[in-house]
Amino acid sequence: MQIQDFSHYLQHLEDNLKRQLQHDLPIKLGNLAVRLFKDNFQKESFFGRAWIEVKRRLNPKTRGAAANRKILTGPTGNLGRSIQATPRHGSVTIHSDLPYASAHNDGTSNAGRSHNVRIPQRQFIGPSPELTDAIQKKIEQEISKALNL
């Protein structure tokens, strides 16, 4: 291989890595995180840490769909579907645009019209070792592809 060819090859690798880090990876990692966070709704937990049970399912008088519906899904499932990724140049933000999402994710003691309803934390978005591991594996895969390893 000639020096000029090698220089061209290195420039190609650099361009490929820059595109991965600044554009492609934030999109892919955002999609991965959204998928993992949405899985929490199906598993009724935050990466294996079970959510606090809801009163409606504990009440023997509750009948029909409400008695069997998963925690935090509501009749519409909007909260789980609201999770989205917003990629930016070299980063990504995972969020929900629903006003009540943070009350459920973080817990609160001043919810409801009278501001005296307590909502226990049922985290569905946030850092976790499982998310970190999945992101690290995805980064390694994508960098290896970019370097043609």
Structural write-up:
- The protein is an alpha+beta fold and 149 residues long.
- The chain contains 6 helices and 6 strands.
- It starts with a helix and ends with a helix.
Strands, helices and their partners?
Blueprint: H1 3-43, E1 45-46, E2 49-50, H2 55-58, H3 65-68, H4 78-81, E3 83-88, E4 91-96, H5 101-106, E5 108-111, E6 117-119, H6 129-146
Antiparallel strand pairs: 1-2, 3-4, 5-6
Helix pairs in contact: 1-6
Summarize the structure.
This protein has 149 residues and is of the alpha+beta class. The chain is built from 6 helices and 6 strands, in the order H-E-E-H-H-H-E-E-H-E-E-H. The strands form 3 sheets. It has a two-stranded antiparallel ribbon with strand order 1-2.
